[in-house]
Structure formats: structure tokens, C-alpha cells
Amino acid sequence: xxxxxxxxxxxxxxxxxxxxxxxxxxxxxxxxxxxxxxxxxxxxxxxxxxxxxxxxxxxxxxxxxxxxxxxxxxxxxxxxxxxxxxxxxxxxxxxxxxxxxxxxxxxxxxxxxxxxxxxxxxxxxxxxxxxxxxxxxxxxxxxxxxxxxxxxxxxxxxxxxxxxxxxxxxxxxxxxxxxxxxxxxxxxxxxxxxxxxxxxxxxxxxxxxxxxxxxxxxxxxxxxxxxxxxxxxxxxxxxxxxxxxxxxxxxxxxxxxxxxxxxxxxxxxxxxxxxxxxxxxxxxxxxxxxxxxxxxxxxxxxxxxxxxxxxxxxxxxxxxxxxxxxxxxxxxxxxxxxxxxxxxxxxxxxxxxxxxxxxxxxxxxxxxxxxxxxxxxxxxxxxxxxxxxxxxxxxxxxxxxxxxxxxxxxxxxxxxxxxxxxxxxxxxxxxxxxxxxxxxxxxxxxxxxxxxxxxxxxxxxxxxxxxxxxxxxxxxxxxxxxxxxxxxxxxxxxxxxxxxxxxxxxxxxxxxxxxxxxxxxxxxxxxxxxxxxxxxxxxxxxxxxxxxxxxxxxxxxxxxxxxxxxxxxxxxxxxxxxxxxxxxxxxxxxxxxxxxxxxxxxxxxxxxxxxxxxxxxxxxxxxxxxxxxxxxxxxxxxxxxxxxxxxxxxxxxxxxxxxxxxxxxxxxxxxxxxxxxxxxxxxxxxxxxxxxxxxxxxxxxxxxxxxxxxxxxxxxxx
Amino acid sequence: xxxxxxxxxxxxxxxxxxxxxxxxxxxxxxxxxxxxxxxxxxxxxxxxxxxxxxxxxxxxxxxxxxxxxxxxxxxxxxxxxxxxxxxxxxxxxxxxxxxxxxxxxxxxxxxxxxxxxxxxxxxxxxxxxxxxxxxxxxxxxxxxxxxxxxxxxxxxxxxxxxxxxxxxxxxxxxxxxxxxxxxxxxxxxxxxxxxxxxxxxxxxxxxxxxxxxxxxxxxxxxxxxxxxxxxxxxxxxxxxxxxxxxxxxxxxxxxxxxxxxxxxxxxxxxxxxxxxxxxxxxxxxxxxxxxxxxxxxxxxxxxxxxxxxxxxxxxxxxxxxxxxxxxxxxxxxxxxxxxxxxxxxxxxxxxxxxxxxxxxxxxxxxxxxxxxxxxxxxxxxxxxxxxxxxxxxxxxxxxxxxxxxxxxxxxxxxxxxxxxxxxxxxxxxxxxxxxxxxxxxxxxxxxxxxxxxxxxxxxxxxxxxxxxxxxxxxxxxxxxxxxxxxxxxxxxxxxxxxxxxxxxxxxxxxxxxxxxxxxxxxxxxxxxxxxxxxxxxxxxxxxxxxxxxxxxxxxxxxxxxxxxxxxxxxxxxxxxxxxxxxxxxxxxxxxxxxxxxxxxxxxxxxxxxxxxxxxxxxxxxxxxxxxxxxxxxxxxxxxxxxxxxxxxxxxxxxxxxxxxxxxxxxxxxxxxxxxxxxxxxxxxxxxxxxxxxxxxxxxxxxxxxxxxxxxxxxxxxx
Lengths: 718, 718
Known about the structure:
Chains A, B: One of its GO terms (molecular function) is carboxypeptidase activity. Chains A, B: Residues 613-713 form the Transferrin receptor-like dimerisation domain. 2 copies of one chain form a homodimer. With 718 residues, chain A is an alpha/beta fold. The first copy, chain A, has 3 domains: 39-89 and 353-490 and 498-569, Aminopeptidase; 105-334, Glucose Oxidase, domain 1; 581-717, Transferrin receptor-like, dimerisation domain (Transcription Elongation Factor S-II, Chain A, Up-down Bundle), CATH 1.20.930.40. Chain A has helices spanning 4-23, 39-49, 54-64, 74-89, 171-179, 198-207, 289-298, 371-393, 410-413, 415-423, 425-428, 455-462, 473-482, 513-520, 543-550, 555-573, 581-601, 609-630, 637-648, 681-688, 692-716, and strands at residues 93-115, 120-124, 151-152, 157-165, 188-192, 212-216, 244-245, 284-287, 324-346, 358-363, 402-407, 433-441, 445-450, 524-530, 667-669, 677-679. In chain A, α2 (39-49) crosses α8 (371-393) and α17 (581-601) runs antiparallel to α18 (609-630). The longest helix of chain A has 25 residues, at 692-716. The radius of gyration of chain A is 25 Å and the shape is globular. The interface between A and B is medium-sized, with 18 and 18 residues.
């Protein structure tokens, strides 16, 4: 039975839904972009939204997170079967799709530190543990299947070296150390989580000649400085470790041995590469602040620069003096392991557009229990599928083919999604959208990232969905963001554009949309509902934490299921694809102008004329086609194909300099950021590197793409 | 014998001084504002600057800080004798001037905290102590004459109450608590040092109905978060307490019983008031972070708002739930005690201007040893006097009368200076300048605060003095401030105007310039050389700390002695008083414009027309008189008197609303800041309080003052 609060919300929703149904008779409904007449869609939307069930979402979550289910483990396979069952029950044509991919599993991990006299300062990793006598403890912490804290894709290694503290391990941090005369060559670098993707920390440390990397969670960023630690509060306790992949994600994601091709079980070994360039050659391991504390405390040497001090109760020093020696002994079991995506399909009815897929996905594998990351998304998606299954029973069929995907091995490097995308590149070349959700619910605050052409689409959909806080999700989202500058998520939001409307991030990386948008140009979105999420990638991201601090009555699960479902329904059924190229054009123009200012500031002589002209052409073509989209021809199939092809025009078949897998010229994860998007990356990273020749040639590629995209839109405009 | 580094500096100085001497023959010297011909002054300057001796300054400091010398103690009297001896030796007409003033001495201080079960959490104040086995410890920490940590002018009291944490105890912080529904009524408020003057924290807490106040030093602001604690580094160790006065300084300073009149020993009791409004009625006491930690750790209740978390290793909460009870038992011995200023005089030679005094002062009393605060200033001043004494022996005599002052009981509330100023108000009405130095040397970075008319004066003088870092003090000062936004001093610098030149603060309060400028309108400056000063008002502000972390070879002592001396020499001997009213005029105009914007933002209907017109009149008059100052008449005495009278015109005999002792209409310590200046305080505080009637009447007073000042300058301009 649905908890009281949810019932209240359902009735709230009913009231709120009326205007849409009522409006179906009026021409005002033409305002829902993409529809000639929203009447019928409004009815299906209402019918759909009545189904996703908070209590059932909670049940899915409880079952999915009952055991640690690291990718390729038997428990992971059990979750695949559960998801496949639910897909089938909803009437989806379902298959479990295996791949054979490189994964490391820790056999033994030892990190120990010694002072100058050889006295042991610490030995870890300490098992994650909170006191059962206090605030109820944590019921899941003693499961023997919990893997010790390790980094995905760290090599095995046995290194002993002095320690240097390098703050967040950003490029600026390593440059700062160098400017202070502190070398990290042949040292073990101790860095804190935050600011950039952990694989980037290792990437830079390796470039600077470090022998190994320890990555710890500082309580200033992720622990008691933020709020009460679990189980008293939602924040990271002293022993909790942030696991995670240290793959060089900005080089390429997926199975390291098969960039660009799919690691199907039958792929011969000869097609797998030997020394993947997206993997570190130096060992790396995460640490809790409990384990990092004795190391940091014993470091001497110069005081840290401004902004490097964390919240442990002593003065931080840079080290490198020989006072502290760390021994890292990492024994990793590297093997090609089987992982399992689950794919559920609903065939479209329109012969002209049924091959233009709408894909929606979420990953299923977890470092440990993964209550928030990722199974809050899986639970929501299963309720989306539940709702769509109900529509199918009511006789509804989509115009375009819908695929739901439950990805595996996302945590190691977006592997399940990347291999599947690489396998289906031909079909996906004309897929109309990919909708992602990963850290779906950690609290009550909706957030989204998207290509600009789908930003307004998300705002429209969230205006249809009631919020557990009252009003619509859109209203609450806008209100929250107006009063809030802080963000709780692990994604870096510094790139978020300032806008009057509810803000939407650019797509960087760190989840399964990356192969879709950045490798193939499938217009994508990523959504979540955020909160005070202090247990990311630790054992404590479990059901117990979730029901205490994220969503006790699963009403935000229900909300996300509804939003995710409306994204799919609208994109599958719209008369005209609701891409907003006007916003896209404006944003691209602003990126180019910003790059021009940056180049001027750095005295880099570059000619932006042709690129700016092309961007203005694209913006003008976008405005013209927008009018056509609002008044589409009777048969919009050709228009739709052309609309879709404009995004494809942003791909450069050669890819980005140094990283050919990334083909999108407008968005990529930054080489030195990882999570955060770099816009017009070819141009901006060349400017950042002060390389005028490369910048000019990247400007030429961008100009060509913009003209190509403008041509496409021009050809569609009447 | 002078240490090697100092000898190098002396020769550096000799080289640097040559251009001045050489330039004495050229007309370029007219550029030293205030002199018709700088030739002779340049020679005296050079002769003077050769005398202040680093080693002797170190000896003064060692002797002055050999014992704790709290105001009115026998040890304080010994330092008065030492200073008087040095004054006499230099040829100054010297007297020790006693006052009888109200002071409290702690008899017994007990702060204890209990949890809900009555279990004792702490009992203090813990004696200040660092481990002698580590880094040499501290030789002075066990002296039985060290007074236990207390607040000057806290009443005695015995209160027991629940605790609420109120961040820095600013007005905004108390408003925030109220907005969160947390009442401090009848509670003991725990606040951290920083942001405002400690007396203001108590002032606001009392207004909000608190029963008592505990003020602690958080390591985030003042401790290990900043750098290594003493004795390893210069920052505050866990047990160190910031003592200090909690007088309501923004109401009035000086002896609380005698506002406006001097507490001479023979002042009858009938002239002393009974219930001074500048004293708190609720008890207050400082705590170390060692003692505050168990209280803060045990507090529960709501999480603290953004920005309230400190650097102790747990999550802070607001408290007020009854979980923690504090008992404060303060027994203070209040009595009228004798304090001793030392005044040394050099009679001026010019019959027309000898009564226009130049006063230079520094306080001598300390909470404990006072190596930096204040005796780094006393040592520097004694070397200034040493240098001026040498000039006297060489036959030099000043045009105007010079007075050097060694103030007592500054720590309790600028008492020695205030009483003396009140006693000599008639003479000081036409004193041409007061030069202050208090925390004179805590490190190598020159800083200054001044009335705008003396900002350029300080820049000129520092251009004459060599810096131990090479080049001139002015060059190093400008260079340091360009690369530095942080400040180490206890003065709040947020009000520092942004300027291209070396920045100079406005005069707020917290040292002995206050009675001069803000009560009588004597143009004033305050100078210091700052560093990583982490032992402010603790036992550890001693000779041992000083020679480890502030100025091991006393070369900055020498530098400050030279700058202080040149200020005195130039002001005593200038042909024309070197007041720069042009800068003053510009600054006043900018204050009025800022107030106008503030009022507009708050929708306060105010008419600024007359005030702006008057300010423009004043600025125009200042420009005209500036030309005259550059080409003065043969007899400049009348011009000088008029120049001086312009500053006097800024006084309002009625004083500021609610605080009539403060008469200056351009600068006052903020009612809710204390240290930091509020500019055009009558106007701005009325706007802040949203009181349009008061603001308009204060604008009228300001208009009158500006017109009056402009009349004065107009009368001087030819």
C-alpha cells in the first residue's frame, strides 16, 4: 500500500493534470513543442503517470541492493535476471546481452606508512565500519562479499616511496608544486577527492613522474565538515572509502582493450589491444580519512599553499622530505570477465520512423550495494517500465521504437553502454535520443544535464510532473536553484551556464550518456534528484542509508520514474522531433566568443571570423527551422530525419586531438577535468595549451561542422 | 654590536639616502609636499635614520617583556620607569602621568560544562601550556603572575544556562539564529573570535537577552588551520586564549566612569558615574579551542548554517536543546586603580606654531608579556626617541612642539590615551597630528591606516626608508599588497578602499588614535609591520615567540623606528602642513555616493542633493588650497591654522546618535563592528537601521560640516 504522503501526491497530481487534459480541447496546447495537437498525448501522459508506484520502487530498491553486486559477480547476474523479469512482465521484448571485458578484482591491497625511524604510522585499508551501538549502526557493513577498497583499473604494483601532498591533484595543483620546487618524481602522491575525476588525478600524477597515487576523502569536502557523518547524519564517516575507476576516461571509455569496437563474447583475442592508453601504469588506491589522517599528520616540509588545507585537525604540509614513507602493495586479478546488459524493446508502429530509436538507460552494477548509485535509478526505471507496460495493456503503441537498457560495468568505465553503443553504431546513428539516469535519487532536488536542443524539452516535461514538495517539479527545481549556489553531487557544476530559467548542466562525462552523445552524436539528457549524498561509492550507500536520508517514502523515486517515462513517451510519439536548435545556436555562439576572449587574453593570434560566421549561419537556420517545427508538414518524417542529422553534423570523424574516440566538436569531458564538460573542446584545449596551430585547425573543423549543420537545417526549412 | 644583516641594511640605507642628500641641491626637491626647500630636512632625515638601532630595539623589547605587566601592576610601573629613563636620556622633558581608573582583575574564573546527565564535559580555563619537550616549549608560560584568561570589563557573575552557538556573534549571525527559531534568551552564547570586536559580540548578545557569553578562538580562524601552532610555528596552540576587553568601545572608550573628562587622581568620586552604559551587564569570558572543543562537540540541535562550521574535527550544531549546560562563575575585583602614562616633550621653537603639537604614541601595558602587542611598538618608539635625541645633541630643534606618549591601560579600553586626551582637549584642538603604533612588528609587511589627508604623507615617508627586503619600504609594501589579499592582523580590512597605490585603511578603532581623531579631530595615522601573528593576547605573545617568528634580528623594529620618526620630524618641521585635502574630498564624495546607492537599494527616500553639493564644494576648495600649499606664503602660520581647522570642521559637537562621545562625522568605529571603521557613520548607520528621519538629519549635519570645512579652505586659498 502506498504511504500516506504519496497518496496525497497522487491526488495532487490528479488536480494538476486536469489543466493538461482540459487544455487538450484548446489551441493553447499547440505550445507543447513537437505536437500538432497535444490532446491524445496528454491523455496517455496522465494514464502513464498514474502507474509508477512509490512502494513498488522501494521494493525494487530493496531487492536490487540486498547484496553487493559488483559487475561480473554472480550477485550482479541476479540483478540482471530481476530487471529482465520486470521488463518481460511489462511486455518488453527482453534480452540479456553479455560482453567479455577486462576488469580487475582486488586480491590483496595493502597500504602502510612509516615514519623516518621505521615506526608504522598506519596500515590499511581499514574495513569500513560504523559503531552498531550508535544510531543503529549499519546492517550491511559486515558482508564478506564486500570488496576491499580499491580503484578500478589500477595496475598491480609494489612501490615504496616518500609522500607528497598534492591537494586535489589538478593540473594547477601539480604546477603549483613544481613552482614551489617540490618534485613528485618517484614519489607517492597523496591527493584528495574533488575538483576533477579521479582518473585525471592519476593521469596527471603519472605525467609528472609519480610512482603511485593515494586518493582520500577529506572531511572538508566529504565528511564531518559538511554535516553529521552516517549513521547520525548523511555524510561520510571516517572509515568510508570512495571506490572508483581510475581509467583515463577523457581518452576513451569502455573496455580498455577494444576502443571503437564491441567486446562481444566471440570477439577474438587478436582484436583486443595489448597496452591500452586509457589505463594508468602506476598503482592507485583510495583511502578513508581515517587512514589518510596519520600520513597527513606526519608529513612535514613546507606549509601548504592557500586553499590546500583540509579539515583534519592539524596543519597540512607538502611532505617530500623523507619523513613519511608509504608502501603500496596492490595485487589485482585482471581478467576478461562477463558482464550483462539487459535490453527491453517496444517496436515502433510508424514504418517511416520506427527505426529511429529512443533509448533510455541506467546502470545496474555497483561498487558495493549501490542504493543511490545506481539502483535508485534502476528502481525508478523499473517503475517507468511498469507504467509503460500498463499503457501497452491499454492499447497504446509508440510511433518510434523504444529501448530500455540496464547497463553493466558502468563503474569501471561506462563499459556496458559503450560496448553496446559500439556494437549498434549503425542503428544509433539515427537514434533520436538517449535518456540517462544514474545517481537518480539521493534527495529532493531535481537536476539535469542535456544537450542544448533538449533543455527546453526537460523543462516542459518537469512542468507536467507534480513534486512531493507541492506544485510541479519544474517550479520546485527553479525555486531551489534560485536560492542555492551549493551542489551536493559529485559532478562539478562550475560550468553551469547562468540563465534565468531552471539551470541545466552541459554533459561532461561520468555516466552512460557519454558514448551516445560524444561518440555518436545521439542527443542526450541525464537527470537526477539530489540531496546530501555523503556515502558515494562506499559500503554505506545502501538501503539503510537511503531510507534514512534520501527518500524514506520513495516519492522521489516515483517522481523520477514519471519524468523518465515522459521523456521516453514524448520523444517516441512527437509529431516533430522537439529539438530546440535555437538555444543550441546561441550557446555555441557564446562558446566561440568566450574562446576568442580567452585567446586574446593569452595573446594567441587566431582568426575566429569564419567560425563566428558559421555559428551565426547555424543560429539563423535554427530560427527558421524552429518556425517549421511549430507548423510541421502533414508528413514530418523527412523533416525529422533532417533535424536529427544536424546533431550528427557536429561529429568529426577524426575525433579530438589525442583522443579520436571522442568525436563531438561541441562537448567532451575535459582532458584535465574528466567529469566536467569542456565546450568546443578541440578549440579550447588548444588555446589552453597555447598551441595556435592546433587551435586554428580545430577552428576550421568546427567551422566546417557548423556550416554542415546549417546546411542540414537550411535544407529542412521551407 | 649590530647583527650582520642589520649592518648590511645600514650600508644599504647609506647608499639609498645619498639621492636625497644629493637632490637637496636641485629644485626637484620641491616635490616633498609641505616644504619650500627639502635640502635641510633631507640632511636631518639622514642623520636621524642612522641612529635607530636594531640591537638596542631588541634589548628594549627583552627588558620590557621580561615580566607580565598588566596595566596598574607593579611590573607595569617598572616599564613606565624604563621608558621615562630612555625619554630623559634622549633629552625629553619627561613626566609620569597617573590616572585613577576603573579596572577589573580576575579573582577566580570558572567555566564548566555538563551534559544532560550532569557529567562534566570540561572545566576551565585550562592554563595556557605548550609541551617543553617539543620545539623548545615556552620559557615564560609558568610565571605565577600571569592572570588567568579573562575579559576586561566583564562583570562578576554566576550563571548557569544552556548553550547556543552563534558563529562570530555578528548582528547578522544573531538575526540568522532568530530566523531559524533559535532563541538565545537566557542562554549562554558561545561565539568565535573574528569578524567584529569582542565587545560588540557581547553588546549584541546582551541586546538579544543572553545570560552570558563565551568567546573562543576557532582553529579555522586562529590556529592549526592557518599554519603550525606555536612553538613549532607561529600560530595559536590549542591552549592559548585571546584575552581582551569587552567594553562597548563604539559607545565610548576610556575610563567607563568618566566619559568626556579626565580621571585624574584628584577627580572626586561625585564626578564619576555609577552605571556606565559602555559596560556589559552579562558576564563574558574567553576560551581556548582546547576548552571550547568539548562544549561544541556535545552540542546537538540543528546543523549550523553555511559558513558557520569551524575547523574542529566534528560537525557543529546550534545547540539550545538542553544537552549542554554551562556554568560560568566569574569573580572580578573591580577597583579604581592607578595607571601611568609617560609623556616626553620637546618644545617647539616657532612662537607662532609651537603650540600646535605633534603627538606620537604607543601603549605599554600588556595582557601578559605583550612582545608584539604592544611592546614591539614601545621598543621601536624608544629607538625613534633615541634618534631624535641624537638630533637634539646635534643642535636640531623642532618648529612645532613634539610629544611622545607611552600610554597605559590601552587594553582595557584605550584608557591612558583617552584620559590624557580628555585632560588636554584645549591644547589638542589645534594639535597638527597624532601618530600611533600599537602592534608595531609581528612580521615583515608594512601596513597603515590614516585619515585621507595623511595617506600620501605616509607613502612619501616610506619612500625614504630602506626595507630589510631591499628597496624602500614603500616599494615592498606596494609589491606585497599587489600579490596578497589576505591579512594577518586582527584589524578587519574589508573596508580598505581599492586603489592603485599602496593601500591604506580607514581608522576604525582598537587603538589609541581613537580619542585623537574621533573625539577631537586630530589628523591621525596608525602604522605596523605585519606577519603571521597567531598568539595575539595570549601568554605566548612573548620574547621567545618574537625572536622565532616576528623579527629575529630586529631589523623591522629599526624600520618602524625610522618611519615613526620621520612622521614626527616632517610634521614638526614642515613649512606648510602636508595635509592632502584633495584625496579627502574624493573619498568623502565616494562615501556619499555609496550611501545614496545603499538608500536607493533599500527604497529609503532621502535627499542627498545638498550633501553632494557641499562635498563637491569641499573637493573644489581642497584643489584650490592644494595649489597654495605647493607655493606657500613666506609666513605660513595663518595658512596652517586654517588647514588644521578644516579637519576640526568635521566634528559635530553633539556627537553621533546614541554615542555623543564620538564627534567625527566622517569616521567612527561601527556600532556593530568595533574595529572596522564606518564612514559617514551618522548617515550610514541610520540607513542600515532603515531610519529615514535620522538619516536625513544626519545628512544635514554632514552637509553643514562639509560647507564649514569648505569655508575654511576657501578662506585659506588665495
